[in-house]
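Running log. JK asked me to keep both predictions on one page so they can be read side by side. First protein, sequence followed by its tokens:
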Amino acid sequence: MFILQPMFGKLLLPALGGAASVWNTCMVFYQTLLFVGYLYAHYLTRHFPPKQQIRVHSGLLLLSLLFIPIGIVQTEAPPTDNTPVFWLLSVLFGSIGLPFFILSTTSPLIQKWFSCLGHAHSSDPYFLSIASNSGSLLALLSYPLIFESQLGLSDQQRFWSMGFVLLLALVLLCMAFYKQSRQDIALIFKPAAHLLSKPNLAQQLYWLILALAPSSLLIGTTHYLSTDIASVPLLWIIPLALYLLSFILVFSRYNDSLHPWISRLQPWIVVPFLIYFLSDEKLADYSLELILHLLIFFICIMFCHGELARRRPQPEYLTQYYLIMSLGGMLGGVFNNFVVPFVFDDLYEYPLMIITALMLNTVTKKRHAPIPKKIFLVSLLLYLMFFGLIVYQYHQDIANNALIALIVIAILSNYFMFHKNMLYLFLYSSLLVSCTTSFTQQNEQTLMKTRNFYGVLSVTQTTLPNNDSGLENDILHAMYSGTTQHGAQLVNNNNQCTPISYYSVQGPIGQVFQAYQDSSTDWNIGIVGLGSGALGSYATPNQHWHFYELNPAVIRMATTPAYFSYLQDCMSQYAIYPGDARLTLDKQANQHFDLLVIDAFTSDAIPTHLLTREAIELYLARLTKNGILAFHISNHYLDLEPVLADHAHQLGLYGLIQKHRPQSKSQIFASDWVLLSKNMTIFSPLLTQTQHQWRQLATNTTFKQSWTDDFTSLISVWKH
């Protein structure tokens, strides 16, 4: 199951421009089918006798062989004018729906059948979940390190299909043992004393919430870490590995001693973290920040999963238990992917689920000696005075009385929840203070923020001091995806057409436009990745520009003059093509460019399909005889130079590279650029003007395996 998930997600990525949300949507699909598989297992074992269970399931096993070997079913291209979520779900269902459904039924069915064998451990078969989750963890870690780095997608599909057939044979063998054992022994069921008897409705709802919160938190944490902390490729593996590890630990014999400690520690670690988180501060070292968030995530899911394991029922209700757990997991994924984007414009679900996990902890509500009324009244007065200072400082011009009333209500509610434990009263009251402080210090420089399938985008406004006498301060508008800037513009002092950030005149791409300014007056130019439209600042009246952009929100921002005006103020002839650039270029057989810029490699979700040999061959087919390919390969974690050097060597191309490192100016960013062409002499003007800033791209590359549509591996280009 955990080999199929990343493998098939990778198969689908090229159709959607390598968007990170493909993984999250696939996760919802997997969680939904997991729930359907558990529902099937529950219904089958509750309403069918053993012989019919075997017949029905054997028929489904044989039917699933029709999907072997697995692959993407032929379908139309994804939509470009609205969300591709439903297109993606339909492709997943048509391609791997039944095989994944069969995989999802295996764990509950095997455990249920084992509980009926009369084995020494049949009365408590939940230890088998340790085996299933260990297998999941092993597959998760081995895919990027072994399978992806050693095998192409076609080989992965073939080996997986062979493994699936082997699994079906083993399941059939298990059913044969189950059938034989039912005939040979008289079942004497002795329930384990520590397991719950028949669960009531309240207990089932508690299971549901305990499963929902970690599932939502898994997706929220992954999204937050990869957008607001560090755009590290493959970062999604770590939270998912911790998620699986928590299941292994809580269903082991160590949970009885481990869970009480987690329950006691959770408030004292999570509440200070939330106070820190709401302060909008970050540690200087992003790796420490990552560790901090992962620690909080692990503590929260360990508590929730520990409670689930502690409250597991007798084997008679095993399939019902797993069914509710899978329903909670599915609802968590649905909440993050289908509800939250329409309700929140930022990743608010992340702290919301941390708070949910915190409020599920009942240790804070245990009976203790009540707090003396005098102590409570004094503490309440102090909190009100503190809140009053906040209100006076930040909200002098609003309805102070209404705000104070809300604060009093919050404090009183907090008192009634925790008045039997003074320590927790002050702990949670401090959290209330931090929430209010965060509310009063909202960032007023955010011009707009939007969220869609491709992530959270924002436009910020910053005032920069201007050292030129007689001029007002510069106003900078910047486009961000999480913490990654995707273009900026100076919007006053007649600087609208001054290129900055990665595209400055001093930088590599600026040198290209300067070197060819006399011969490029009528060039046909293609740009893959619109961003803020900053490259349009180099446009001349007779040039034709073509922008290819996957994210509709980016197009809306770049074409709104109140945010960015490069397209309106600096250009006369341009066109914007929505959708994946490679698919669009493939259809534009009559389009030929003098300069084609590929600018789509600056975040964690590297669209590797834009860097394969087949992609390079497509770009070359869309170039004129003396055309130039320019790649913006700036990245904190990946070194993409060897990939392009290998392609240049294999395809007989000439290449240059420059790693630009500016000395002082704050709005001129470091950037790495690679140029490729069929004709070496086309680079003569550039090399003459820029002297030694460009160097020849090494062609004697020792790159182990060329990137193709069948094989890519981020591990092979990780920076040391």
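And the second, directly underneath as requested:
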Amino acid sequence: MSLRNPLKALFYLNLLIVVLLIGYKAYLNFFETDFEAVHTEQVEQLHRMLDDRDTFSFAVVGNINNSVGIFERKMIPHLNASGVDFMVSAGNAVSGGGEDKYRALHGTLGHLEMPYLLTFGQHEYEDFGSFRFYEHFGPHFYSVTLGNSRLVFLDSTGKTPWQWQIRWLQDVLEQDDASHTFLFVGHPVMRSGQELLFTEESDFLQPPDFREQLLSLIDEHAVNMVFSANLTLFDRETRNDTTFITTGGAGGLVLNNETSFYHYVRVMVDEEGANAELVRMETNQNPVLKRLETFWFFVYSLFYVGYINFILLVSVLALIGIKLYTLVFVGHDYYPNYDLDPSPWLEKPLRVAMFTNNYLPFIGGVPISIDRLKRGLEAMGDQVQVVAPTYRDQPENEQTTVRVPSLLSMGVKREFRLANIFLARIRKQVRAFKPDIIHLHHPIWLGSLGLFMGRRLKVPVVYTYHTRLEHYAHFVPIPGTLFRNLISHALIKHFANKCDGVIVPTYSTEEYLRMIGVKSATYIQPTGIDYQRFNSVSDDAVATLKASLGIGEERVFVSVSRISSEKNIDFMIDAIASLKARATRPFRFLIIGDGHERDRIQQRIDSLGLQETISLLGAVPPDDMPIYYRLGDAFLFASKSETQGMVILEAMAAGLPVVAVRSSGIDDVVRQGYNGFKTPEKLALWRDKVALLLEDDELRRELGDNALAFARDYSIENFARDVRFFYATLLAAQEK
């Protein structure tokens, strides 16, 4: 385990290097000054220099391959001092046809103090490089007249049909009166006895018909010299009066023997003729390390501007190596540590800091859950500090709550607030509180600040997974499918794995977290309810509320949720409309809660003529909720975004059977035929279960009694005690 932190640091260092280098390559590709038609500029310079001269010299290089170690650092300074008038690449000036390779070559050639011309070779053609060569330099085949000489460049890659090139070349040669003709073709035309191992037929000019007709033209028109690259060697062959030279030693891999070595060819032209001279480049290599350095230069020059792609390659390999090491050699214990002793932490008061993106007086499942846990912990002698957004009608003189002003409020009633997490006083107040543990209730914003504070203060961090984020895609300003199917799950996984422990309300929720890759310790703990308060409502209070709502002898169905699309309220409205059309018994449906879609839902109720059946009661103070639950005969629910469905337990504590749509958070709480019914999201099935409770008084009473007994185990006291045990276990693990 001693290697774990250094490996982690090395992993992130390599990750940073990869990101920076990829960013740099992106900069070169998209932001650096563009260049085009470079050959036009080079030819103009050559004409200005040589039009009045019959004597000149030039260097021919092959297989530069974006070399830095050899070509840029050794060969270019030598060429600049050699006195040659210009340079010609016989092919493979780049190591590949990618944009970054062309830009790197352009930068390298900028060090030359002379004009240059390039042959379109195999590497220039690779990776869709043909259009880049055409755009940046010029045509794939062309000819240039300099003084009394002509230079002809052919495309040997197959990009341009060879028949067309032969016809074009024949016209050029027949009309040419130049004293000297030099032909440049990327692939060697002639085979020799000095070929390297693993040389294939495709390394030479193809197809055979192209080679034969080209040789015929060369013989007919007495071409002086033919230059090629593509093989990493130097070779000179003579056919009739034509010299065929293969030069492949300007960079990249060479074998450092008598055939394959670093070199270029110097060509001298005068009135008497043209001569080619081999110029070997001494790399001053140590004889012992000569072979190793050869391989090093191959790797060094194979990748864009040598060191950049080499470092990128090494960093990627290091990332893979570290990951493989941790998978294979670092032991993983997938079982809890049963040797931990949490008792010392259970015997003394704890200081708990909680971070949440919404809190009372905002009414919702998360704020109510936090408030209940806070009250339960404080009843056991713990101190709790809550860091939460500021609200207009929040309680005054809150001693244990750090309120954070909002940068932005969202929603029709400004119910979602983006707190200003950048205020220094928040961190100062949390540090002054000296928490033993930090409890987070959201995976973003204030939750992220809490995670940061936990790492800075070196205390365990607990995260409660309250919300299925994928059902809130409509609140996010990015494509809903992208957020729902990818981002939401990745966010939960990344955040949960950074925490020391995760509290989940149900077994199905824990299964979801494991499926998306959460590896942190998990603890299944449903949110507690104030069982006694929901179960001890007077009949007079219920009668008074019934009268105020104009309810007589009808059966009453109750639902509690935020009025928002993820709560699936439209489904319940459609089902109730269908039920009303066939029910023989009068009923009312009361929806308690508020939200940004309230106006739309009310319009839909009106359009269906359900004003007398369905009532939107708006938000109800938490202290009054037990009376509203007791008002009902059954509780209806269709949301599929819950992780627990706390309102279902509250309804059960008031003695109400439940009809719900089956989903995570519901499946573990509603027991089919015992305390209610759960159905697939199919309108007829759900409606029929509601109708059954409407018509069958005995069944409704039996399920209601069972619901009351089921809810008894979810008291706030039990809830706080169990969460406190998880806190103590994490503190014991940290101490160990």
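Observation for JK regarding the second prediction: The chain has three domains: 33-284, 343-524, 531-714.
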